[in-house]
UniProtKB/TrEMBL annotation, chain A:
The keyword Nucleotide-binding applies. This is ATP-binding cassette domain-containing protein. It comes from Ruegeria spongiae. GO terms for molecular function: ATP binding. CDD domains: ABC_Carb_Monos_I (cd03216). It comes from the Bacteria. Keywords: ATP-binding, Nucleotide-binding. PROSITE patterns: ABC_TRANSPORTER_1, ABC_TRANSPORTER_2. Residues 14-256 form the ABC transporter domain.
Automatic annotation (TrEMBL), chain B:
It comes from the Bacteria. It is found in: Cell membrane. It comes from Ruegeria spongiae. PANTHER family: ABC TRANSPORTER PERMEASE PROTEIN YPHD-RELATED-RELATED. The keyword Hydrolase does not apply. It is a multi-pass membrane protein. Keywords: Cell membrane, Membrane, Transmembrane, Transmembrane helix. The chain crosses the membrane at residues 26-47, 68-92, 139-162, 169-187, 199-223, 254-272, 284-301, 308-328, 334-352. CDD domains: TM_PBP1_transp_AraH_like. This is ABC transporter permease.
Length: 267, 361
């Protein structure tokens, strides 16, 4: 990671310039220029294969980009892996949940950053179960998720409960940027509502979010801005809070019937 | 302790619906096996109504228990039990350690050569490995040498598995042969004998049991209440998630294998001290017996699940069966067959239990 401060980015938390990813001859992502302001919630939409997940993977360090620049929190960054991105403050809820099935909820929430006592014992320092449990209860109460006993192991929980734990885990890190890749894809109505509640608490806390979603209703409910991807390129940047866009508008951008004025001739 | 709710979203947790911990099942199994042997004692004509664990008639110890037999049962499993404590951690982390048996042999040979006494019945020690400098060393020296050798082998095991990505089965199988080789090469096959008095004390009498229970208690605490333990479970449960959470999975694996090998080395110290000699073949099948104890005790070979209490109970099941067969005067080959059947059924039963537990949720 470059330690050189490029310039004062002001209220910009993440910027990509000319971000490009080729898989051999396949141009999955082409010249993506994107800006996310602090506290802003942005949705990324697009058809399957439009480049949404590819875009996210370049930012979170899961893959290495072909070219382009990523500027995060004022620094040009080049994450070697998702762990580096997480350490820099980018928290991602992946489609495949990163939970340990045999551990209970507090263990999963605090995995890798346990609250401990007797730290002079090094790797054998004592876990502060009581405090982790209390924090877990507090974090989960906010989300509206229903879990009868947080000391149950994850393997005994429903998909929605698992997803809520995964997201609550992400939210409780107080990261600089949260990315969710289709967090409600496999969930029922109630469970989706719980996840959306967590997103709203992030908004209230002023924490920026990138949400990859196919759910039009959800996107219009939750975010400030929609970025539409088509065939590996950004084809629209819709400020849905200040201008009147309808779901149909967004669909026409996704399918290619319309292209944003500033992106004419690109996609 | 104050009543504490662990439910969120207005849900209360019904304690009466809680399924009991898996260790209770093993305790039941242990009791059932004991009852079977007791019944056989009553039913088999040639047993003439003897009891395995109870002693109603003579009452030598002031209790109704046959203390002598119980002592033997625990004593004969404690040394392999010490190895099983380490194997338990390795299996919980999603690995396997096949090298512990031969490591016992190799460590016993090496350690004993640093624990020899100079004069045996007024004569120079006939089994001396080194020169005069190695006679009558303080007991700490052989112990430290042994633990260092164990740590060294464990670090190699762990590093191979963590950094080259070869399966734990292969890495420790290789180490299995290497350690057998070391054991034979050390003295060209000659046994090493006649330790100092203080070294002989380490494994004398009921000392193996004391060490076993002390270490079991220690590692129970370590696995349940420390970061090391939590990460061991996490890695066995979902290695990718553990890595994503910032756990240094490689370093942790090296540490797990190192601790397991150090426990095996300690078992070698106790065993050689108990036998007052070290032979190249020592520890044969110990790796398998240790794995069996862990598996009977509910440690899941796919990782993420198991406990030290389970393994200790598994060791007890192992010991009761062993001495139970001797007690009903059946030959050793029946013992082996029964042991094999019990290991298989332990895993089958455990899998059924896991399936039904998941189905309920």
């Amino acid at each position: 990671m470059s330690e050189v401060k490029l310039h004062d980015m002001g209220d910009i938390i993440l910027e990509t310039r000319g971000l490009t990813k080729h898989y051999g001859g396949v141009h999955a992502l082409e010249d993506a220029n994107f800006i996310l302001k602090k506290g802003e919630h942005v949705a990324i939409m697009g058809d399957n294969g439009a480049g949404k997940s590819t875009f996210v993977r370049q930012i979170t360090g899961v893959e290495q980009r072909t070219r382009g620049t990523v500027i995060f929190d004022g620094h040009e960054v080049d994450f070697k892996g998702p762990l580096e991105a997480r350490e820099a403050g980018i928290e991602t809820v992946f489609q495949t949940l990163a939970l340990a099935d045999h551990l209970d909820v507090p263990d999963n929430l605090f995995l890798g950053r346990e609250k401990t006592m007797w730290n002079w014992l090094g790797p054998f320092r004592r876990l502060d179960y009581k405090s982790m449990r209390a924090d877990t209860m507090a974090a989960l109460e906010k989300t509206g998720v229903k879990i009868p006993n947080i000391r149950n192991t994850i393997q005994n929980m429903s998909g929605g409960q698992r997803q809520c734990v995964a997201i609550a885990r992400t939210a409780s890190f107080h990261s600089k940027l949260t990315i969710m890749d289709e967090p409600t894809a496999a969930l029922g109505v109630q469970e989706t509502a719980q996840v959306e509640n967590i997103v709203r608490t992030l908004k209230k806390a002023g924490e920026p979010l990138i949400l990859v979603s196919h759910n039009m209703r959800q996107v219009f409910d939750l975010v400030d801005r929609i970025i539409v991807f088509r065939r590996g390129r950004i084809c629209a940047n819709l400020d849905i809070k200040n201008e009147s866009f309808t779901g149909e508008d967004v669909v026409s951008y996704i399918t290619g019937a319309k292209t944003g004025a500033e992106y004419e001739g690109v996609a | 302790m104050a009543e504490e709710s662990h439910g969120v979203g207005g849900l209360k947790y019904d304690k009466s619906k809680r399924s009991w911990p898996g260790e209770v099942n093993i305790l039941f199994a242990l009791i059932i096996i004991i009852l079977i042997f007791e019944a056989l004692g009553q039913l088999l004509p040639y047993m003439r109504g003897q009891s395995m664990l109870f002693d109603f008639n003579t009452n030598r110890d002031g209790t109704i228990l046959n203390i002598a037999r119980i002592k033997i049962i625990i004593l004969q499993v404690s040394i392999i039990g010490i190895i099983a404590l380490g194997v338990t951690q390795v299996i919980i982390s999603g690995g396997i350690d096949l090298s512990s048996g031969p490591l016992v042999g190799a460590t016993a040979m090496i350690v004993m050569s640093f624990a020899q006494t100079e004069l045996v019945n007024g004569q120079l020690n006939p089994k001396a490995v080194f020169g005069a400098w190695a006679f009558d060393l303080p007991v700490l020296i052989p112990v430290i040498v042994g633990l260092c050798f164990g740590a060294f082998i464990g670090i190699i095991n762990g590093s191979l598995i963590a950094f080259t990505g070869i399966p734990p089965f292969i890495a420790t199988l290789g180490m299995f042969l290497i350690c057998r080789g070391i054991a034979q090469w050390w003295t060209r096959g000659q046994p090493v004998s006649f330790p100092t008095e203080s070294y002989a004390w380490l494994g004398s009498g009921m000392m193996p049991v004391v060490w076993f229970l002390l270490l079991a208690f220690l590692f129970h605490i370590v696995l349940k209440f420390t970061v090391y333990g939590k990460h061991t479970y996490a890695i066995g449960s979902n290695e990718a998630a553990a890595r994503m959470s910032g756990i240094n999975v490689r370093r942790h694996k090296v540490m797990v294998y190192m601790i397991a090998s150090m426990l095996a080395a300690f078992a070698a110290i106790i065993l050689s001290s108990k036998n007052l000699t070290a032979q190249t073949g020592m520890g044969q099948f110990y790796e398998l017996f240790a794995i069996a104890m862990a598996v009977i005790g509910g440690v899941s070979l796919t990782g993420g699940r198991g406990s030290i209490i389970g393994t200790v109970l598994g060791a007890m099941v192992f010991g009761v069966i062993q001495s139970g067969f001797t007690y009903i005067k059946l030959d050793a080959f029946y013992q082996l067959m029964a042991m094999g059947a019990i290991i298989i059924s332990a895993v089958v039963l455990d899998q059924w239990r896991q399936k039904s537990a998941t189905a309920k949720a």
